[in-house]
């Protein structure tokens, strides 16, 4: 039986040599990856390919939170399992624009000392080294003027946390506060179970080959005209109008939802016999804990 791989100073050194935690967009490589060469996570891991890159999500909670990415206005990049600097370093925006890489910002070792907390460490092969704390999801957001900012998100299965976990999250929050970056703690309490289920079940349609903006608008216009009818009927009408097959109609409909063109009530579920109901853009956005900046951290 294969032994469970453990984190050691040597393993962290290997991660650094491999360039873990470096890069942006499709060139980014997470600090923790789902592979035989990495220790296994405590939760159920997910490997998802979208945005031109394979995403390494170490729990159901990270996966669900990541599904809100296309529903978040201005979301330009998402780096999962992002490592925080141990020592004094530069602002993480510098990876996108060197002019934004403000230097002299405190690392987690200094922040832990300031908070009076013991910084976690790993041991092995006669060595001891500080553990590298990571942020589950680090969003890069663009505003309408082209300005860029970061949004850090930690994902946990519940808001009730043990004292050691709270201290580690406090270090993480203070790290991002020192950089002027908003930090959220997302648990299932920050989104509705019905919304989660709809996103999980419709994800395959967003992940498929993208349809054109014109096609999404056409599908959304038809859906608005047919609000209150069962989804199956709406899809048949979209299929008839577009003339490229029922699967294509499915993709056009759900991609219009996932790209915020069609503000569908996500609580309706995904099953075809259910009628579609629409919301105002603001009410649709309120389903999204990332866009709404909801947090379980007090």
Mean pLDDT: 92
Largest sheet: 4 strands, mixed
What structural category characterises the helix and strand content?
alpha+beta
* Count of DSSP-assigned helices: 10
The CA-CA distance between the termini, in Å, is 44 Å
Order of helices and strands: HEEHEHEEEEHEHHHHHH
Total individual domains: 2
Output the strand order for the largest sheet: 3-6-7-8
Considering DSSP H and I runs of 4 or more, what fraction of the residues is helical? 25-40%
Strand portion: 15-25%
Shape: elongated
Beta-strand segment tally: 8
CATH top-level class of the largest domain: Alpha Beta
Give the uncertain stretches in residue-range form: none
Q: What Rg do the Cα atoms give?
A: 21 Å
CATH architecture of the largest domain: 3-Layer(aba) Sandwich
The CATH topology of the largest domain is what?
Trna Endonuclease, Chain: A, domain 1
Describe this structure in words.
By secondary structure, this protein is an alpha+beta fold. It has two domains: 9-190, Trna Endonuclease, Chain: A, domain 1; 193-287, Arc Repressor Mutant, subunit A (Orthogonal Bundle), CATH 1.10.10. Helices cover 35% and strands 16% of the residues. The protein has helices at 9-17, 60-67, 108-115, 163-177, 193-207, 213-225, 231-242, 246-258, 281-286, 289-292; strands at 46-50, 53-57, 75-83, 121-124, 127-130, 134-142, 148-155, 182-186. The strands form three sheets. A four-stranded mixed beta sheet has the order 3-6-7-8, with helices on both faces. A two-stranded antiparallel sheet has the order 1-2. The chain has a two-stranded antiparallel sheet with strand order 4-5. The longest helix is centred in the middle third of the chain and has 15 residues, at 163-177. The protein is elongated. The termini are far apart. One of its GO terms (molecular function) is endonuclease activity. Residues 108-187 form the TnsA endonuclease N-terminal domain.
């Amino acid at each position: 039986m294969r032994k469970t791989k453990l984190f050691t100073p040597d393993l962290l050194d290997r991660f650094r040599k491999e360039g873990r935690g470096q890069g942006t967009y499709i060139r980014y490589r997470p600090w923790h990856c789902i592979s035989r060469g990495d220790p296994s996570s405590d939760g159920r891991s997910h490997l998802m390919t979208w945005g031109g890159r394979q995403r390494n999500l170490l729990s159901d909670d990270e996966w669900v939170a990541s599904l809100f990415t296309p529903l978040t206005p201005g979301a330009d990049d998402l780096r999962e399992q992002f490592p925080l600097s141990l020592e004094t370093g530069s602002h993480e925006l510098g990876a996108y624009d060197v002019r934004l890489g403000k230097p002299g910002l405190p690392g987690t070792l200094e922040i832990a000392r300031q908070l009076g907390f013991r910084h976690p460490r790993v041991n092995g092969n006669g060595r001891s080294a500080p553990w590298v704390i990571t942020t589950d999801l680090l969003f890069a957001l663009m505003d309408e003027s082209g300005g860029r900012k970061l949004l850090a998100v930690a994902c946990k299965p519940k808001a009730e946390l043990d004292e050691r976990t709270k201290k580690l999250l406090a270090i993480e929050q203070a790290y991002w506060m020192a950089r002027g970056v908003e930090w959220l703690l997302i648990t299932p309490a920050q989104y509705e179970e019905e919304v989660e289920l709809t996103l999980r079940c419709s994800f395959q349609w967003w992940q498929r080959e993208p349809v054109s903006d014109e096609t999404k608008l056409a599908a959304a216009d038809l859906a608005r005209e047919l609000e209150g009818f069962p989804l199956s009927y709406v899809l048949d009408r979209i299929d008839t109008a577009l003339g490229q097959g029922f699967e294509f109609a499915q993709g056009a409909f759900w991609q219009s939802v996932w790209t915020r063109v069609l503000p569908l009530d996500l609580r309706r579920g995904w099953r075809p016999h259910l009628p579609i109901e629409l919301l105002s853009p603001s009410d649709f956005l309120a389903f999204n804990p990332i866009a709404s900046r909801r947090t379980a951290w007090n």
